[in-house]
Queue: 2 jobs
Job 1
Amino acid sequence: MELEKRGVVAPLLVTSTFLPLVEAQAKARRVTPRVVVVPHPVGGLNEAELAERIEAAAGALLPLADEARGSA
Amino acid sequence: MSSDWDVAVVGAGVAGLTAARVAAQAGLRVVAYDRMAPGGQLVNLTALHDVPGPGEVTPSAELLGRLVAAAEAAGVTMSFAEVTRVHAGASPRLETSEGEVGAGAVVVATGLSAGRLGLPGEELLVGRGISTCAGCDGPLFRGRAVAVVGDDDWTAEEALELAEVAAAVTVLVPGRPGWSAERAARLAASGRIEVLTGATVTALRGEGVLSGVVVATSGGERELAVDGLFPYVGRRGPGALVDGVATDESGRVRTDDGVRTAVPTVFVAGDARSGAPDSVPSAEADGAAAGAAAVAALRPAAGRGLRIVDPTFGVQPAGSAAEILSGGTAEWTEVALFSNSKPNATELLRGVGERLQAHWELPEIGFASKPNASAAADKDVIDWLSQRYKMVLVAVGD
Ligand SMILES: Cc1cc2nc3c(=O)[nH]c(=O)nc-3n(C[C@H](O)[C@H](O)[C@H](O)COP(=O)(O)OP(=O)(O)OC[C@H]3O[C@@H](n4cnc5c(N)ncnc54)[C@H](O)[C@@H]3O)c2cc1C
């Protein structure tokens, strides 16, 4: 969030468990973060499970990144 | 009043958020400092047992969301800075990582440090086998053997949570168990949990990652091969953080009467208080009492509760965001990843980063990390990233 305040586009990869925390923190800092939510957990996953998470996260990130670049 | 704040709360866990809310609802200017994020221990827990009452269970994130929203609505200003010293007295002053501030009253709600055994080499193994968060790190030990050290109800709950994934859980109880009969029955029924009483860990084994512990019992010493170790002993209070207040042998702040310390402008709430029962309901009750006590201490100075409150107090003026935003001058080809070093976070980031690299045909992608998820990012790294890159993909939490 500090990066966004400094003008850097900084999408946050957040697991679902940590989403309320990130939202609360963002509200307290008065910023609107760009968030890509990944199902919890990430630690302890095997390769195939991790690949699924990467696929889902990339699916959400690419349009978000295109939009940020397009509106810059 | 000449102070920067009427009330400064140190720590935004259950106790601190509640104290801050209560003081702000009385019309006082309140800041709540936390060196991490709001929530304290709640951030590490998935389910809260015996909350709101005995036998009931509340999702941790739900309570956390409620506490933060209520504090926000009451007008509490959150500051993500570490308080390094509280100079108590008639007009307390706080040294923080972002400078010095004054307050009419201070509520100390710092909770306790993470559990530690105090053994040589322990810090090097934290995150490499040693953890104090079964909910976060338990899945790393799927099908493997782990040990848990402690004697209270929460140790028992952590052991039960670990038993859902680990192959075997040994609970090492330094003396006698202090958990309830109901938890004792659930531990016994698990089938994967062994409880050793009168057991002390005397040494850690492992080169770079934990591979076992040495356990002393009345029967002598023995090696226990484990990949994970979860210590819930040796937790310490804020100790010498506050001048002039007494602490007990575990660094928790002693009180004269409820939440009042020997200094009339300093109050303590939650786990940081000597004798606190270390539970969410008691931290909440302490927070409410400390907030009310701080209000009462400031009443004469604050004009008997009647004051004109500036609703924009603590809110950044609209122009400042735009000013800061002019900083991002790098090109769109400058993209980096920033990992919090949690298990698999870097792999996840790299995977997503590769997809973006292909999508935007980027020649390369930068990489930075912080060594420990539970520490704030180094300012130099943030400075470097913000000067060098247009976009940084950040891994947060797991
Ligand atoms: C493993 C475990 C499981 C538990 N399970 C349960 C349960 O199921 N039910 C239940 O009722 N209780 C449970 N508890 C107990 C409960 O979590 C705590 O009693 C309660 O959360 C304490 O709240 P607190 O606000 O006092 O402290 P904390 O939650 O520890 O918050 C303190 C905050 O202060 C901040 N801080 C510390 N020092 C500074 C500083 N110098 N400057 C700025 N900020 C600072 C920290 O970052 C932290 O956010 C459990 C405890 C543990 C360890």
Job 2
Amino acid sequence: MTLPLLLLLLVILALGSFLAGRARALMVAGGDARRLHSLPAHHGLNLMLAFALPSAVALAGWLLARPAAAPGPAAMLAIPAIGLAAAASLWLTMRPESRARNEVEAAAKGFLILCSVIAIATTVGIVLSLLFETAGFFRQYPAAKFFFGTVWRPDFRGDSDLGFLPLLWGTIYVSAIALAVAVPVGLFAAVYMSEYASPRFRTFAKPAIEMLAGIPTIVYGLFALITVGPLLRDWIASPLGLGTSGASVATAGLVMGVMTIPFVSSLSDDIINAVPQSLRDGSLGLGATKSETIRQVVLPAALPGIVGAVLLAASRAIGETMIVVLGAGAAAKLSLNPFEAMTTVTVKIVSQLTGDTDFSAPETLVAFALGLTLFALTLGLNILALIIVRKYREQYE
Amino acid sequence: MNDLRLTERDLDNRTARMTARKVQVHYGQNHALKDVDVDILDKTVTAFIGPSGCGKSTFLRCLNRMNDTIAACRVEGQITLEGEDIYDRRVDPVQLRAKVGMVFQKPNPFPKSIYDNVAYGPRIHGLARNRAELDEVVEKSLRRAALWAEVKDRLHAPGTGLSGGQQQRLCIARAVATEPEVLLMDEPCSALDPIATAQVEELIDELRENFSVVIVTHSMQQAARVSQKTAFFHMGHLVEHGDTAQIFTNPRDPRTESYITGRIG
Ligand SMILES: Nc1ncnc2c1ncn2[C@@H]1O[C@H](COP(=O)(O)OP(=O)(O)OP(=O)(O)O)[C@@H](O)[C@H]1O
Ligand SMILES: [Mg+2]
């Protein structure tokens, strides 16, 4: 017998114990379900849990103990037997006044707790593994040189300069340009859509804007590389004497901004729509114009949500890689000129981990340090957002 | 009866601040108001009474064009303010609403501080020249709405943190602060305790010295106490309109009589 077969057997037995529990409940109640404390289905579920939980624990324990082997005949029988024993004892002790419903409720709560623990544990695990690798990196490369170094010049033969600042600068610069495009355009589009547009226009325009979010970022990257980059170079950068590079921070920022417009607009639109009509009526009823109403009542009421939307867009922009590679290039540089090629943290993480890598060299391990710093950055951003939102809640609710 | 008609027409010509003639309102297919003729007299409190859903709020919203914000709503007929048709294309509804203020059926304070709620209208219309003047307007309005004593120490706390009845009084203060010529109040006391109700009624009486007030109410006693004119609506029709004393003591229409004596509604 094999593992899939064992699983099938367990499922069949679990279903069987549900039916058995339901039937038993009716039996102890003498056929009258009204005499029961809990519905027959609760007793069924309870019995099923009584079977399934011990079996699952036994199965997990057995798999952990002998991960490679297929279950032998002994285990095949022992695992369901444990569950059956537990179920049988419950079956025997069942009374009309047994509180199966409360136990099922407790089990449901336990299941929900388990799910949130999984989510949290995964995050903690990821952070821990990042921390571990990062510590390895800092044993080989001084932290001060990493955090304050202004030159990024990795060399796999050793003696690299792994300064973080040029990458951080590139990330901030590109994201700032992206947000400068996405936030006003997205927000004003959302205001138009929710406050001014006719329902017919809305039904057509909203999905059209949201379609922007469905375009794969590599396509945006191509667009940046082939259209926007040369356009900016030929029409703005060259005439102004600001450089002749097709790849530039401005290119990547603009295209990334377009990509993040739907994040801002779609969320803000929903949030603005959720502002109760009575607030608008109140303002209009005092003789405020539509735009005064929007500026002074609707947007402040929607602000916490809008901040959330902007932060979502910001973390998208910070994490974006493809558009940067194709739009801004891969040269780490500290410069103020938006028409120069630069690059970001994520791009460098990819380039340090592709090709021939040696997971003990600092040139590879630096990727983890970069990842951890990026994580700390977005975490800080989220906390900031939380503080802003809370401050406004206090003031406005 | 003829005499009454005559005096009413007399009043029309002299002191009617707002007049409504043959007003019809449709919400899509629903014919919510049919042929309503009402005069809102100067320095008078007019009460609208009638069973729920008869169109009182709808008519009130016609008077300051709040129905413009409802896409499905269509208003026909003629409504004038000081002789000017308010549905004329040259009339700016925004200006109109500054002159014809409104307190809504449900309290709707803005998510701002108590102070900013009251200062909202004066700020928009530039009614105060400096902070001190604004402070004064805010205090006066809050006092008139019988809320000052309760909130004077927390003017900068959020208005949404007040109790339901306090919120309604805040909305009244907000509407009063704009100094409208006509104040429309849609069941302003439905969330208030008897003490606050008495204070609001006092305010209404005081406002009458300068403004016209229209109040929708489900309380016959309140209508009798505060109003000089009463209009009775039933199923979209204006059934009867006249002096409050006459409506309550000697109604002409049997429907009015059964409503005020509690037999329909
Ligand atoms: N926004 C709206 N859209 C569609 N129909 C509406 C709308 N508002 C009111 N109506 C309809 O118009 C009619 C009159 O409603 P209105 O709100 O004026 O009643 P009311 O007399 O104020 O009642 P109440 O005393 O319960 O407040 C009702 O039939 C109602 O269904
Ligand atoms: Mg109403």
